Amino acid sequence: MPFEVHKMTAPQSDTPADPVADHNQILLAAAQAKQIAASRRRKLADKAGNYLMPLLTVSALLLMWEALGTAFPGGLPSPSMVLMDAQELIFNPFYDRGGVDKGLFWHVLTSLSRVGIGFGLAAVCGVLLGAFLGTVDWARKGTDPIIQVLRTVPPLAWLPISLAALREAQPSALFVIFITSIWPIVINTMVGVRNIPQDYVNVAKVLRLTPGEYFFKIMLPAATPHIFTGLRIGVGMSWLAIVASEMLLGGVGIGFFIWDQYNSSRMSDIIVALVWVGLVGFVLDRLVALVGQYVSRGTTAD
Amino acid sequence: MSKPLLSLENIYVDFERDGVISQVLENVSLSVHKGEFLSIIGHSGCGKSTLLNVVAGLVPVTLGAALLDNKEIKGPGPERAVVFQNHSLLPWMTVYENVRLAVAKLYGARENLKQLHDRTLHNLELVKMTHAKDKRPGEISGGMKQRVGIARALAMEPKVLLLDEPFGALDALTRAHLQDTVMELHERIRSTVLMITHDVDEAVLLADRVVMMTNGPKARIGEIVDVKTPRPRDRKQVLQDAQFIDCRRSIVGFLEAHDHAHPAPAEPA
Ligand SMILES: Nc1ncnc2c1ncn2[C@@H]1O[C@H](COP(=O)(O)OP(=O)(O)OP(=O)(O)O)[C@@H](O)[C@H]1O
Ligand SMILES: [Mg+2]
Questions:
Q1: Residue ranges of the ABC transporter domain (chain B) (predicted)?
Q2: Pairing of strands B6-17, B20-32
Q3: Does the CB of B31 have a partner CB in chain A at under 8 Å?
Q4: B37-41 β-sheet, strand order
Q5: A302/B138 Cβ within 8 A
Q6: Alpha carbon of B86 to ligand 2 centroid (Å)
Q7: Residue B111, beta-bridge partner list
Q8: What is the pLDDT along chain A (302 residues), one digit of tens a residue?
């Protein structure tokens, strides 16, 4: 229970009852009860705001969209049309009729597994490379301009190059994710490592920690908040990259699904898929943020 | 007399920033024998921490020699444990893990897990911090952090213990308790200790010699007084000890003479 009345110690039985103290006791209890009630009301209003306001804006937007859709038929389908057209897609994400004719869950799962591999590799390589560049000054100076240029190359621009080099669709898609999401991880890890407080370095020096011990016991934990900033940006970019690259590569995956439905002019299906893309991207971001919060608890000094 | 354990011979320490040199220590010489307890006192910013860091091996000397066991000090090492002025605990480790890191590093190769565990707990017990062993540094008070820092340094059983204002953030009672702990330890394992402090009573109570530094820049050792009050010392009884009172008076006199408001006349070059 977050709210509890901390009762004053009861007057001892052998001391004579003091009417003034008793009266004060009652007044105090009443004041405390009032405090608690006020705090409860504040919390409730806060919660209501947190859930009610988004609900209000979303329904307002949907209503507006619905009105526009009815006013100008033939353009974008209105929400009610989407609901009718894409019933199976919305309510049964798990169907599987073989080939690419699957429910959205399976498309998203395939895309997510690609992100898992590509982003996982980027995370490991990015942290290692960032730690190296953050430690070795001349290496950082040598690579900094290259990194600054490469990180601005958009995901789709990598696709022809990786297709030419790797020749197959699947590894190319993975490479695009990898190369898109690695830069923020490298850069942020590097910043984190360069900013390790001198105090921690001194402790490591006095204890004569080996490079391995230093890496795991000092460098990684000290740079954790920065590393997770990089990972969070990276996971968002990898989700952007997967949808884009799958559009061109074909096969199962949410990106190709969107492209496929576009070619058969099924706008309603595309809208449903977009909602999935957005929600999954949001969940990925929150997930990395939560893991980061958990792992870096206590890493900030004092 | 036997050879000193630690000797600083005419050391100069300069810091350079953007081509500008600031001279912090000028021609400092000091010999410390094994088992001695030295207090270092001086006004803020004069270079006390710098002097301690030279011994720790964290700051290189510009000129002169810093010798430990007749070997030049080339870098830091666990035989010269430091309790840093800002405690420097690793915030991602618990109190226990912070001490355990030092214990594992020094005794990991020779002792089994049970022994390492006991050693860690023993050192936490010395500073009365066992109750908070699973807390992180962010969850304990400044004084508690300093105590853990002391436990970590003691756990290394160093040849030379370097204390940079170790009791600065403590309340009077805890401070007295820890002073007693350090005195007992020094008595028992005869460790060599260099301790920086701003507290004149503390300096005299704990030390065999009190080193007084002049104001920076170009700080040097102004005076050294011997504290001949016999050990073990009792914090109440020493207040009546004539020697103790003498030492105290000369230190206060020195500090007043070097007050920033009334700087001592510059010495000819
Ligand atoms: N790494 C450094 N680079 C440049 N200047 C430094 C460095 N470390 C210390 N100094 C300077 O050296 C002088 C002495 O610093 P030091 O920390 O030794 O003082 P202190 O006597 O320990 O002071 P306090 O009692 O406040 O801790 C200061 O003027 C400080 O600015
Ligand atoms: Mg200092």
A1: 6-240
A2: antiparallel
A3: no
A4: B80-83, B160-164, B192-196, B37-41, B209-213, B221-226
A5: yes
A6: 9
A7: none
A8: 444 445 445 445 555 678 888 888 999 999 999 999 999 999 999 988 888 888 999 999 999 999 988 888 877 888 888 888 888 888 888 888 877 778 889 999 999 999 999 999 999 999 999 999 999 999 999 999 999 999 999 888 898 888 899 888 888 889 999 999 999 999 999 999 999 999 999 999 999 999 999 999 999 999 999 999 999 999 999 999 988 888 878 788 899 899 988 888 888 899 999 999 999 999 999 999 999 988 887 665 44
Which chain B residues in 38-57 lie under 8 Å from chain A, judged by CB atoms? Answer: 56-57
Q: ipTM value, please give it.
A: 0.86
User: Does the distance separating the beta carbons of B77 and A222 come in below 8 Å?
Assistant: no
B44 to B22, B193, B222: CA distances (angstroms): 16, 21, 15
Structure tokens at A199: 């105090």
Does residue A96 sit in helix, strand or coil? strand
Distance between CA atoms of residues B163 and B245, nearest Å: 24
The structure's pTM equals: 0.80
- Whole-number Å distance between alpha carbons of A287 and A115: 14
Token representation of residue A213: 């011990």
Task: Indicate which atom in ligand 1 lies nearest the CA of residue B15.
Answer: 4
Beta-carbon count within 10 A of B246 CB: 15
Ligand 2 centroid to residue B20 C-alpha, Å: 22
